[in-house]
Amino acid sequence: MNSTRDKDSHPHGQDQKNRDDRYQSQTSFRQNNQQGKDQAKDRGRKDKDFSQHKGNNHNSKNNSRSVNNKNSNNHEQGNSGAGGGNIEDTRPDPLSLLSITGRLGSLTPHKPFFGNSRVVDDFEKLNKVGEGTYGVVYRARDKKTNEVVALKRIRMERENDGLPISSLREIKLLKTLRHDNIVLVKDVVVGSDLDQIFLVMEYCEHDMAALMDNVKKPYTPAEVKCLMYQLLKGIEYCHDHFVVHRDLKLSNLLLNSQGILKIADFGLARSFGLPSRPMTPKVVTLWYRAPELLFGDSNYTTAVDMWSAGCIFGELLKHAPLLPGKVEKQQVDLIIELLGTPHEKIWQGFNKLPMSSIKLPEQRFNNLRNKFPNITDAARSLLSGLLTYDPKKRLSVKQALAHPYFIESPPAKHPSLLPTHPEMRNLLSTR
Ligand SMILES: Nc1ncnc2c1ncn2[C@@H]1O[C@H](COP(=O)(O)OP(=O)(O)O)[C@@H](O)[C@H]1O
Ligand SMILES: [Mg+2]
After folding, report:
1. Is 1.10.510.10 the CATH classification of the domain at 206-417?
2. Is the dihedral of CA 25, 31, 34, 35 positive or negative?
3. How far is the CA of 72 from the centre of ligand 1 (A)?
4. Which residues does the UniProt record annotate as the domain Protein kinase (predicted)?
């Protein structure tokens, strides 16, 4: 086996050591537990009312893991409440963009827009590792330090008033978040044109979607537990910092060669505050989209991320997508087939949702036990707690982390013991 984990190529040797200290043994890992976009691609397939989807001809790409709704975030109704964390959702002015690089000192009218920023020529592009909603991602070498990093070209498409809001939002968010389970943005660099902006990120050898597609052997229960624990720790950090990710899915989860899972792609993320303000329900890639979004709720909460976490949990257990709907109507049908038909008694406020009057299939039973006959009761209880219709009753991230699933045997595998795989992307990709 081509074990990339053994290579000492990680750019943060010391950081990694510190991280490893946290996971000294499986036992301490367990104890911790106890304490505990594709604008262009999407243009032709914006979500519509269920009725409009009927009989739609869908291109097979619709079924791919990359389908999402980042184009929809232009329709935000404004959602950054007072006290909503340190990231505002208002249109950033150039000064606040400058400040996010953290290295620009005072702005004088004579300085170019990006002042002292490093430039992309400081990096040698090695190969393309991903192409998503807002841009291409390269594996690259920092010519000065020799570090291998990921360079994400941010598509700077001008929006109504000339500023690429979605991109600025992502940069701003990512520069604020620092956690082992969230991809580290090391710098922001510019290209030859000022509208070429790249995020310099720590490089991760895999994304979880590519691994799922290429590795036929399913994860063991102890491996799934390790991955879920890390995912939930990353989500906990986001929610503690008033950030809702809104696009959690396997292709936005990276895995480095030390088995550390990193949440990436904050292109759809938002800060939130109290009282909550309406947000667009057209978020989250269909397969991972919470029922309140599918039924048109614009007052949703961090619970949408918890639903996605439930879908990811199911996918890791089954080694196949849990709810792979092609259109919204089919997505709702698949959810109903798995969990039964929603109604006011189990989901308070359901009848008031914009799409609740739609004719739904009759299904009285929850099929989680049939679909997952070989998992423990605790695993099924966590799955069911995450895949709960009523967002108010759905497990919060802290409740999920405190769930007996993380206490019962088998203990979560230590990240460094996760199976290693060759870096398929580098073998297959082009420059
Ligand atoms: N830091 C990184 N290290 C390695 N690969 C990455 C990194 N960031 C992104 N990628 C790869 O690029 C793909 C697209 O990146 P992502 O940030 O999700 O952009 P998009 O907004 O275009 O979906 C990911 O699915 C992953 O395969
Ligand atoms: Mg992505």
Report:
1. yes
2. negative
3. 20
4. 123-406
